[in-house]
Amino acid sequence: MEYRFLIVEDSLLVAMDIEDAVHRSGHDVVGIAPDMKVALNYTRETDIAFVDVRLADGETGPAIAETLAQFGIVVIMITGNPGLVSSGLAGVVGVMAKPLTDQASMDLIQFAVDRKNGRPGTPPARLRLFH
User: Fold this and answer.
1) Pairing of strands 74-79, 94-97
2) Which residues, including other chains, have CB under 8 Å from residue 1's CB and lie 6 or more apart?
3) DSSP letters along 4-26, please?
4) Directed axis angle between helix 102-116 and helix 12-24, to 10°?
5) Count of CB atoms within 10 A of residue 118's CB?
6) Among 13, 115, 94, which Cα is nearest to 51's?
7) How many CB atoms lie within 10 A of CB 90?
8) What is d(CA 25, CA 53) in angstroms, rounded to the nearest whole number?
């Protein structure tokens, strides 16, 4: 089954790397959002979201992630600042530190898809689960 991913990231190069990995995994990217306003426009069409902490409008990633999770979206934080979400976030699966290798991206995508399918999956080595 093909899933629809939202990438919440203000660095276009990072977002494009993740987008490429999602496409190679056989899934679709519904959008790349640099901030909260744009990200929340995709709630109805998103199955899985990867969210950075620091975005174009500040450290809004955690609030975006919790909001997306309330819509039944599988949310994983991908950030260069994992300590900023060390205590976990309501409904958010976990946090993974950037930068991501190609293999780490592919493993993370598969793990997120497993979670969306209700399977535990195998978390990538650097992914810290919240629940």
Assistant:
1) parallel
2) 117
3) EEEEE-S-HHHHHHHHHHHHHTT
4) 60
5) 7
6) 94
7) 12
8) 24
Kindly list the distances between the CA atom of residue 16 and the CA atoms of 23, 56, 67, 68, 95, in Å, as whole numbers in the listed order. 10, 16, 23, 21, 19
Question: What phi-psi label fits residue 79: left (phi over 0), alpha (psi between -120 and 50 degrees) or beta?
Answer: beta
pLDDT tens track, the chain, 131 positions: 899 999 999 999 999 999 999 999 999 999 999 999 999 999 999 999 999 999 999 999 999 999 999 999 999 999 998 988 878 899 999 999 999 999 999 999 999 999 999 999 999 999 999 97
Asked whether 95 and 82 are in contact (CB, 8 A), the reply is yes
Strand ranges in 10-104 using DSSP code E only, listed in sequence order:
28-33, 48-51, 74-79, 94-97
DSSP annotation of 127:
E
| Single-letter amino acid code for the residue at 123 | P
Give backbone dihedrals phi and psi of 76, rounded to 5 degrees, phi first.
Answer: -130, 130
